[in-house]
Write a structure and sequence with these properties.
This protein is an alpha+beta fold. The protein is built from 27 helices and 16 strands. 56% of the residues lie in helices and 12% in strands. It has a six-stranded antiparallel β-sheet with strand order 3-2-1-6-5-4, sandwiched between helices. Strands 8-7-11-10-9 form a five-stranded antiparallel β-sheet. A hairpin with a 5-residue loop joins strand 7 and strand 8.
Length: 751
């Protein structure tokens, strides 16, 4: 029996745990939701009751204020003076005035005016003797003596609708009387009469009913003396503890052994107090119904959820059984069959974890090799997407943010400074010579006694001091070749070319020295026209798969380099740009076809001593990518794009040249040509034309002594200031600053 339970324990263990995971959150959530809902309901009821009371108070205050205002308005009427009411006409006028006020206000049913010393009551309907009026309206509520006292009052007074009889007639509609003195005009003390308003109690109750719709509830209105004026229901008497409470209150109180929601508020203008009581049992009926329905829903959720869990467990446990059986077969020989159930899976996971840790260790050990691969790829110009390349480098701890340059170092152990026996240089402590805040990375090389560093550029580099410290620390003379500063990663291969060339320069200038970029050329040497247009056209024909046209432009470009370059080093920079242009133009096609592009060896380029050797590298690269240029020809579209580009190069100097004129030249619409050119080149016509003009401006700034104004006229700009702004936005230099910088032999035109 125990063995059987042991076999089934895994299934039922998970079944019970999943059932608990379903039941506990549902129960806990339901409990807290119920408590939250009840608390929210209580808060809403108290707020609703308080708001209702404020509405009742505001409504009653408005009505009472109107009735007091009527008394004030009557004080200004001469026909309501006691001495005037002795005449029949004045009595008639007073009755008409009162009827106007009665018709305008439906809150009270009747209003009667009693002037001091006048034995008549004037109402909106007629005139009465006091005894007749009492007999008609108030005989059920007060005796005649009480009525006379009411008429003799000289202050605001309210009289509740109390009955003199123990048994009331069902047809009796009681009145609430509200007396307001009519002041003498110009006096705040003396009065000339009294207005008595008769308000039907049932009308007031109907008004209160609209504010409080609950069955077991009541609204009480109490005057300033604590006397009950009226209430919504006569069945729920006003508790004394609420009647004599001095302060406003709200909350749940026990009244008659039952809980009630109580709210109380007092009017500041009339001193009347308004109290509501609502039975908690009445309010909680919807909550109890919701609780009952929620219990049923929760029970259904538990039943359905448990059934789904059981079915899923039954279905998904079979693969687990098969997995345990497979593990049992695989590990049977290694553990001798001693493990059972999950222990076999645990053993398999331990084995996989060990293998994973081993692989992680191997990956960690390969990090230096991966770092060297990326650094070597960087020097060869194979960065591709520069931002993605930076991210890959940063994952391996290579931070390349800012300006960098390449530094090549050659040790000369046969020329030891201490005259001891020569020995190979096994390490280069250059990192110890350079300040720690300068970022640098070593690139491994197989050449003996040579080290390559990618070093961050900073102002005030002390090359001479660092070189002396290196000599002193190693006892060996060193030659250090320094490449140009580069702001972009794609420019580092040119810095590498410059550094290797500088290192080779020690055969002429001597070893044990630092050779900086500006020491490689004579003071009169400077770059002539950079073949920007030819490289643009070369890239265009490469992308279009036009191999014949590509070779023709290639020959033209190489011929220009040989004719214009004044040093082999500057030519090497341009040759590198040519190779880079070729590989970049076909990189997308190579990626699409799954063909890997091999970048040429930079060292091979630096070791070239003639233009023919560098030409051979370029032609070899072009031959290698020739299969990627095999595309379907689209002569019509390609011919149009080539004609547009040639027209732009021919007309760039015309300041009146426009897209509309170009569209007329090709008999096409301007919008079509603009859209077509953008789709084919990724650039707008204006951007491309501006690029041609900027390139020509750079050539003229370098090759000639023309003023900026003359250059502006030659390249098609009409305004020198707009040209200067455009030039600076493109190169971050003004034309004058660019010309001065290009006079330095180690500078080169930006790409």
């Amino acid at each position: 029996m125990r063995m059987k339970l042991g076999k089934m324990s895994l299934f039922y263990k998970y079944l019970i745990s999943y059932a608990l995971l379903l039941i506990l959150p549902v129960l806990v959530t339901g409990f807290f939701v119920y408590q939250y809902f009840v608390g929210m309901l209580q808060t809403q009821v108290l707020q609703s009751n308080h708001g209702m009371l404020e509405q009742v108070r505001d409504t009653m205050d408005t009505q009472l204020s109107e009735m007091r205002n009527i008394a004030i308005q009557l004080s200004a009427k001469r026909e309501f003076d006691p001495e005037q009411l002795g005449e029949a006409y004045a009595v008639y006028e007073a009755k008409e005035k009162i009827s106007l006020y009665a018709e305008a206000n439906t809150f009270f049913s009747e209003v009667v005016y009693k002037a001091h010393g006048v034995p008549l009551l004037i109402s909106s309907k007629s005139t009465y003797l006091p005894s007749v009026f009492h007999q008609m309206y108030l005989k059920e509520q007060m005796d005649y003596e009480q009525f006379e006292k009411l008429l003799a009052l000289d202050e605001v007074h309210v009289q509740a609708a109390a009955s003199l009889k123990s048994e009331q007639d069902s047809s009796w509609d009681p009145y609430i009387s509200y007396s307001v003195p009519v002041p003498e005009i110009g006096s705040s003390i003396d009065t000339k009469g009294m207005l008595i308003y008769l308000i039907k109690e049932n009308e007031m109750k109907r008004m209160l009913q609209s504010f409080l719709p609950y069955e077991q509830s009541n609204v009480y209105i109490v005057d300033q003396q604590g006397e009950l004026i009226t209430s919504l229901s006569d069945q729920l008497k006003l508790p004394k503890e609420l009647l004599y409470s001095e302060s406003e209150l709200s909350g749940i109180r026990q009244l008659g052994g039952e809980p009630y929601y109580v709210s109380r508020i007092t009017s500041a203008s009339s001193d009347w107090t308004y109290i509501t009581v609502v039975s908690e049992t009445q309010l909680m009926k919807p909550v109890d119904e919701l609780k009952y329905k929620a219990t049923i829903v929760l029970a259904l959720i538990l039943i359905i959820g448990s059934s789904i869990i059981y079915i899923n467990m039954h279905v998904h446990y079979n693969p687990l059984r098969r997995l345990i059986r497979i593990v049992d077969e695989k590990l049977q020989q290694s553990d001798g069959g001693s493990r059972q159930g999950l222990d076999k899976l645990r053993s398999a996971f331990d084995y996989m974890s060990t293998r994973s840790m081993t692989l992680e260790n191997q990956v960690e050990l390969s990090r230096p090799a991966r770092r060297q691969q990326l650094l070597t790829q960087l020097l060869q110009g194979g960065t591709g997407d520069e931002e993605a390349f930076r991210q890959a480098c940063e994952e391996l701890g290579i931070r390349l943010r800012g300006s960098y340059r390449v530094v090549c170092m050659q040790a000369h152990p046969n020329e030891r400074l201490d005259s001891a026996d020569s020995a190979p240089a096994t390490s280069c402590p250059w990192r110890l010579m350079v300040p720690d805040e300068i970022d640098m990375y070593q690139v491994e090389t197989i050449q003996p006694h040579r080290w390559i560093w990618i070093q961050e550029w900073q102002e005030g580099e002390a090359w001479s001091t660092w070189h002396k410290e290196l000599d002193a620390a190693t006892g060996i003379p060193w030659t250090i070749g320094v490449g140009d500063k580069c702001n972009e990663l794609s420019e580092l291969p040119k810095s590498y070319i410059g550094a290797l060339t500088a290192l080779q320069f020690h055969l002429i200038a001597g070893s044990d020295r630092v050779i900086l970029p500006d020491q490689l050329s004579s003071g009169d040497d400077k770059f002539l026209a950079y073949p920007a247009r030819e490289l643009d056209m070369l890239s265009f024909h490469l992308k279009e798969g036009d191999l014949a046209q590509t070779r023709r432009y290639m020959e033209n470009t190489l011929e220009q380099i040989r004719a214009r370059s004044q040093s082999l080093l500057t030519a090497k920079y341009i040759y590198f740009d040519i190779v880079h242009t070729i590989l970049k133009a076909v990189s997308n096609e190579a990626l699409h076809r799954g063909i890997a592009i091999s970048y040429p060896d930079i060292i091979e380029l630096t070791q070239c001593t003639s233009y023919s050797q560098m030409d051979a590298i370029v032609w070899k690269t072009l031959d290698e990518i020739a299969p990627l240029l095999e595309k379907q020809e689209q002569p019509g579209e390609d011919m149009l794009l080539q004609q547009i580009i040639e027209l732009l190069h021919a007309k760039y100097a015309d300041s009146q040249f426009s897209i509309q004129g170009m569209a007329g030249h090709f008999s096409q619409s301007a919008s079509y040509l603009s859209r077509y050119f953008k789709e084919q080149t990724g650039r707008t016509v204006s951007d491309y034309l501006n690029g041609i003009r900027i390139d020509e401006a750079k050539r003229l700034l370098i090759e000639t002594d023309l003023t900026v104004t003359d250059i502006v006229q030659r390249i098609g700009y009409s305004d020198p200031s707009s040209f200067i702004r455009k030039f600076k936005s493109e190169l971050q230099l003004t034309p004058g600053e660019y010309r001065k910088r290009m006079q330095k032999p180690h500078e080169r035109p930006p790409q």
